Amino acid sequence: MSANEDQEMELEALRSIYEGDESFRELSPVSFQYRIGENGDPKAFLIEISWTETYPQTPPILSMNAFFNNTISSAVKQSILAKLQEAVEANLGTAMTYTLFEYAKDNKEQFMEDHNPINSATSISNIISIETPNTAPSSKKKDKKEQLSKAQKRKLADKTDHKGELPRGWNWVDVVKHLSKTGSKDDE
Questions:
Q1: Global pTM exceeds 0.90
Q2: Where is the composition biased (Basic and acidic residues) (predicted)?
Q3: What are phi and psi of 39, to 5 degrees?
Q4: Which phi and psi angles does 33 have, rounded to 5°?
């Protein structure tokens, strides 16, 4: 099989395996992200795998540069990527995206054993003497957003265009109606 046929088969398999999994995101047909760990877990991290044109005969591009990983030190990121690279070399020539995501899930604790969260808000929280409330509201907001019913999602999608933006003028005042009410003062 050619590289493109292998990629198409793997893409179809990934879509069926991770259907409904909130941790998995398909950025493009050749680029994927997976969150290892639960939302709000300080040891959670995000792996991005991008396929090259000749993948799986050549290694995919592994990245941990997502904003989600900004609290992880670069040394821990490099350590995780090095361990994943070893798994890539062991699986070269075969479909490995699922294998790499599962390998990371199975070894999360080992990968993150040296992790001490780098929090840019710690200096601010120490001044105000509030430590954990900074993370709690953001997770609550995410929970609310994820709990939309199908009907609510459909209604939201109907209001927006294909880019998810509201149409131009969605909140404009009915100009004619407004002018007809205020225009009567000029007639006097």
A1: no
A2: 155-166
A3: -60, 135
A4: -125, 145
C-alpha 35 chain-centroid distance: 7
- Give the Å distances, CA to CA, from 169 to 136, 153, 162, 182: 35, 22, 16, 21
Q: And the tokens for 12?
A: 């179809």
Residue 69 near residue 45 (C-beta atoms within 8 A): yes
Which tokens hold the place of 44?
A: 């959670």
Beta-carbon contacts of residue 170 (< 8 Å; ≥ 6 apart): 159
Residue 39: how many other CB atoms lie within 10 Å: 14
Phi then psi for residue 52, to 5 deg, are -85, 175
- Residue ranges and CATH numbers for the domains of the chain are 1-109 (3.10.110.10)
CA 24 from centroid of its chain's CA atoms: 8
Residue 47: strand, helix, or coil: strand
Q: Is 25 helix (H, G, I), strand (E, B) or coil?
A: strand
d(CA 166, CA 21): 28
| Neighbour-count burial of 71, counting CB atoms closer than 10 A to its CB (0-12 exposed, 13-18 middle, 19+ buried) | middle
